[in-house]
Amino acid sequence: MDKFSAMQAFVRVVEAGTFTKAADSIGMPKATVTRLIQTLEKELDTKLLNRTTRKVTVTADGAAYYERAGRLLGDMEELESSMSRAKASPRGRLKIDIPSSLGLAVIIPALPDFYARYPDIQIELGVSDRPVDIIGENVDCVVRGGELQDQSLVARRIGEFNLIACATPAYLKRHGTPQHPDELANGHTLVRYISPRTGRLYPMELRRDGEEVQVSGRHMLAVNDSNAGVAAALAGLGVLQTLTFLVQHHISSGALVPVFGGWYSEAKPIHVVYPPNRHLSNKVRVFVDWIADLFAKHDLIQRKSTLSLPVQHTLAAPAAAPVALAA
Prior knowledge:
Distance between the termini: 47 Å
Helix content: 25-40%
Largest sheet: 6 strands, mixed
Structural class: alpha/beta
Strand content: 15-25%
CATH topology of the largest domain: D-Maltodextrin-Binding Protein, domain 2
CATH architecture of the largest domain: 3-Layer(aba) Sandwich
Radius of gyration: 25 Å
Number of strands: 15
CATH superfamily of the largest domain: Periplasmic binding protein-like II
CATH class of the largest domain: Alpha Beta
């Protein structure tokens, strides 16, 4: 029996909760994973897992074995990584999940720099706003904006994002330019954002000089993707509050116009999140350091405002063609 493979398979079954998920995460047939664990139980002369048709649970002996095996596997991975560090050449597969908005506008266009530094790292990149089960899906780390939902995970704050309200010149010419957020309740249409995690509609939140306003307003379209929201605003479907880094090009070109000058929304944090109780391998460490440095220097992230042009625009003037974000 390959005891190392059996140990890996057992740890993954415990973390993933099912044989099927564990087999998928380590690239083995489910039958092989089952056989490895059966052989491991036979050799240890103890039952490690309780199996039912619906789930897999750990026995008392299995829990003790999992704790020691997980620590041993972590030590072995760290040993291999330390050898890579000595050669300044971390290598291996890195499974990461990032939000679509940050991925398309900031992270993916910068990846050539990462590969120039670390050519032996292969990234499997999930680009989504869905909740990710980091342990169950065997993900090394995720990048997420906003407050953390799972306090059991380890997080490193790498930046923050800001929001801005905007609309097309043509929309504002038809409906007028609101000076106070409360005016959106009369004669205006919003493009609303739906949380992919909860399905809740987010209100537009703005503050100025101690005054805080939440606006829900009338909407004809609600989306669960920030890039889709920008596309809707560019189509003239209403006033949108969105991430500043997604619309800086469009505001500079005149395709979108900021509204509510002097009003702002509270900045939200951006974190890299990874599982607890695991040694941070060198390949994960160099990615976390790289993306933290990227966000610290990236113009789209660091600019607090997109107002490179005056707030007041001549709405009769034709808008320049929008500049597409890098994909």
